[in-house]
Amino acid sequence: GQRIEADCVVAALGALRNTEWLAGAGLAVSPKGVRVDTHCRVLTATRAVVPDVFAAGDIAHWPSAIYGNRLLAVEHWGNAVAQAETAARNMVAGEAGLIPYDHLPDFWSQQFGLNIKLVGLPTGANQFAVVQGSLRDRRFIGVYGAQGRTVAAVSVDSARWLPAYRAAVAEATPFPPIVGALDQADIRPQPLARAVS
């Protein structure tokens, strides 16, 4: 492993989904939520679509095309809004007009006077590179890599360039991404410490 000195560490445990009331309903339910297909339609325990039943937000556990159909459950209001929009559209679209939910997870927060924005999922990443700014200045963009691909990007007081890295994450570009003629930092990849998860 590797040690990373930090002034502050934020550890989050996630949310508990209230699915107990669905026990015995024959739906695909787990501690991660209610399983839905790519169109936000609820699935049975045998993975069949339940007609005219949709789920979105914290309760939905869906396959992400961006992450190789990995099942995701994202506890952030931005995901809830985007997924609800897709579910609502699909409720009225009819079978031929269904659209997949393909939102790239993201969030933002203000912590200790810093603006932090993240796109993608750093879970499972084994590399990290600062691609803009510097950790020392507490103003940077960093990218996370897994299996040679870019899987997430974080900005700390440096959101100006984040849209370019959002595209790199959405397209799973090789890690680390080289984005246009942006002012590049030393982007030699560094292994992530296993203590950070």
In short:
The protein is of the alpha+beta class and 197 residues long.
Summary tags:
four-stranded mixed β-sheet; FAD/NAD(P)-binding domain; six-stranded antiparallel β-sheet; 2 helices; 13% helix; 2 domains; Enolase-like, domain 1; alpha+beta
Structural write-up:
This protein has 197 residues and is α+β, with helices and mostly antiparallel strands. The chain has 2 domains: 20-97, 3-Layer(bba) Sandwich (FAD/NAD(P)-binding domain); 106-191, Enolase-like, domain 1, CATH 3.30.390. The chain contains 2 helices and 12 strands. The strands form 3 sheets. Strands 7-8-11-10-9-12 form a 6-stranded antiparallel beta sheet. A hairpin with a 2-residue loop joins β10 (139-146) and β11. The protein is elongated and about 55 Å long.
